[in-house]
Design goal:
heterodimer, A: mainly alpha, ABC transporter involved in vitamin B12 uptake, BtuC, 13 helices, 3% strand, B: Rossmann fold, six-stranded mixed sheet, 12 strands
Chain lengths: 309, 294
């Protein structure tokens, strides 16, 4: 894929373009990681896209409307995001309803709530700029700064992305909890029968998605100073697509943390590559759809080969 | 077991082994109702160390309900359930495990896509290191899994292969070895040979004997009297939720067992019905009194 765009689009060959591709990939990739873990655990979260916006809106409005230090807003946003995840998880394990239904409900609640609550407090569809608030520069340094490498400015999210991916891999393959994730997604009944805390695992995974949404939400807030309340719709599918392209099984029990990193990177290359190649960006979604189907077929084939001995 | 139960021929059954003092697990008049459906009623059962107690019964006889009570998945609604002589009410499988009761389910309770060694330690993983970097002790787990499997006579060339790639008999054996390793005193096997061929069944029966020889009390649930008779020390036949027969190995023959399984008395009744149908030769079928004597 990289070679393909490298060949057809000359601007793609510049180091700056790679930094752009990586940035695009990282914003999506950070979110794709917890979504992938959740998927390995056998569930998925349709509210993940708008939850990012919810988190950014919470931090922004809490600080601005209450005239507090920006860090207070950031902490409140984290609590709200974790609470949304816990709510999803708790409802799921209590009712036994499919995650599709429950998170679709949360998705709609958040989408509507984002718009309505923002309008109540700001009278507008976007939040007020928080760039002159206490602690803004500090927080921007943490969530949305750039680091120069060999004359190329690379966004800090790229580094976070790689660190988080490494941490997720370690969690998945080297810890008890990782074992539980695979077991919960692979066979919930069996896992429960041998003493795996299935309920805890599921709620923790949903809260992990909440934490991811918070992080990406903070990045968006401190990159643009202001948040559009209608943003994020549709992104939940992009995260799921990245995880599936990366080899995670939609039904759970199989996958990796490196997979969604590759998936997000492919996503970044396609979305930027089309622009650099001077193609009509309208083709992007079509391209993505083809990628998804191909990935799903390759995954299926690989798994058949692996289980047939 | 069931010192107060009489077998159909009227003789008191007393199979309590002389050397084993107390049963590890005992049910006294236990039963279970789902709403107003009584799945199990006044069942007595005692499990002693180093003994295989076979529970036989047709589909729907209440075998599954019985093991679900003992393994902590369901609670009994009547009678008593004693572990080491003390009455208990288990609410989760974890509790049963902590008391030394391990269950190997019909559907195996393994996660097919996970490697053998991860399945072996699932839910009871070995870890090392202090909290923030506490991690799985993979080398030790693989080593232990390999040793334990070999001790049970199971040799696998690759512990990293998904357990789903093993044969049904091998998977049963891994599950049994796991239960033995984690200090089970009572091992419940739910239809371990039901989905297996003759040879695979033999493999599993061998491991049942191995578990018994290591001092475990084994509850072997099956609907195959031949398999039961090969390893069993005591036989309990369930029928429509109640105990129809409870006898020590010395007091029952394979034929009698098979007959009870087939529903002895009902067969006799069926014979009389068949006698009224022309063309069916009933002379060679056993009489009700013969069956009742069993």
């Amino acid at each position: 894929m990289y070679v393909f765009f490298f060949a057809v689009a000359s601007p793609f060959r510049e180091a700056g373009s790679l930094a752009n591709v990586l940035y695009e990939s990282s914003v999506m990739g950070i979110m794709a990681l917890p979504v992938a873990l959740l998927m390995i655990g056998g569930e998925f979260d349709l509210s993940a896209g708008v939850a990012v916006t919810t988190s950014a809106l919470t931090a922004s409005m809490w600080s601005f409307q209450l005239s507090m230090n920006i860090w207070v807003g950031i902490v409140v946003a984290l609590l709200v995001s974790l609470a949304i995840g816990a709510f999803n998880g708790y409802l799921l394990v209590r009712t036994g309803l499919p995650s599709f239904l429950i998170t679709l409900g949360t998705f709609l609640i958040l989408q509507g709530g984002n718009l309505a609550i923002t309008k109540i407090f700001t009278g507008n569809v976007a939040t007020d700029s928080i760039s002159d608030m206490d602690g803004f520069e500090q927080a921007k340094e943490v969530f949305a700064s750039e680091i120069s490498i060999g004359g190329v400015d690379v966004k800090i999210t790229v580094f976070y992305w790689l660190v988080f991916a490494a941490a997720a891999t370690w969690l998945l393959l080297r810890t008890k909890f990782g074992n539980w994730i695979f077991a919960t997604g692979g066979s919930k009944e069996s896992a429960r029968a041998v003493g795996v805390p299935v309920t805890f695992t599921k709620i923790a995974l949903f809260m992990g998605v909440g934490a991811g949404a918070w992080f990406v939400g903070m990045h968006i807030l401190f990159s643009f100073n202001t948040v559009q309340s209608g943003e994020g719709v549709g992104n939940e599918f992009l995260y799921i697509i990245a995880a599936v392209i990366g080899g995670c099984l939609l039904t759970g029990g199989y996958g990796s943390a490196i997979g969604p990193v590759i998936g997000a990177f492919i996503f970044g290359m396609v979305s930027q590559g089309i622009v650099y190649a001077n193609w009509n960006p309208d083709w992007f979604k079509a391209f993505l759809g083809v990628m998804l189907l191909l990935a799903a077929l390759v995954n299926l084939w690989v798994r058949r080969q692996a289980t047939r001995r | 077991m069931t010192d107060n139960t009489t077998s159909p021929n009227g003789a008191a059954v007393n199979d309590k082994p002389a050397d084993a003092a107390e049963p590890v697990v005992e049910l006294r008049g236990a039963g279970k109702a789902y709403g107003n459906v009584r799945a199990l009623h006044t069942v007595d059962l005692a499990v002693y160390p180093s003994q295989v107690t076979c529970v036989l019964g047709d589909n729907g006889a209440g075998k599954s309900t019985l093991i679900k009570i003992i393994s902590g998945l369901h609670q009994h609604t009547e009678g008593e359930f004693l572990i080491d002589g003390r009455a208990v009410q288990l609410s989760t499988p974890r509790e049963a495990l902590d008391k030394g009761i391990a269950t190997v389910y019909q559907d195996l309770a393994t996660v097919p896509l996970m490697p053998v060694w991860r399945n072996f330690f699932l839910g009871s993983e070995m870890t090392k290191g202090p909290w923030p970097v506490r991690r799985l002790d993979i080398a030790a787990m693989k080593q232990t899994a390999d040793t334990e499997l070999r001790a049970m006579g199971i040799v696998l060339d690759d512990l990293d292969q998904p357990i789903g790639t093993l044969s049904g008999g091998q998977r049963q054996s891994v599950a049994i070895a796991r239960a033995v390793y984690f200090g089970a005193r009572v091992l419940i096997l739910d239809e371990p040979t039901a989905a297996l061929g003759v040879k695979q069944s033999g493999v599993v029966l061998k491991y049942i004997a191995a578990a018994r020889d290591r001092g475990l009390g084994v509850i072997f649930i099956t609907h195959n009297p031949h398999h039961a008779y090969m390893v069993g020390d005591h036989f309990s036949v369930l029928r429509l939720g109640t105990m129809e027969l409870s006898a020590a190995r010395a007091d029952v023959t394979l034929e009698e067992l098979t007959n009870h399984m087939a529903g002895g008395a009902e067969l006799a009744a069926l014979k009389h019905e068949l006698a009224q149908v022309r063309g069916v030769d009933v002379d060679k079928l056993p009489e009700e009194k013969d069956l009742a004597a069993l």
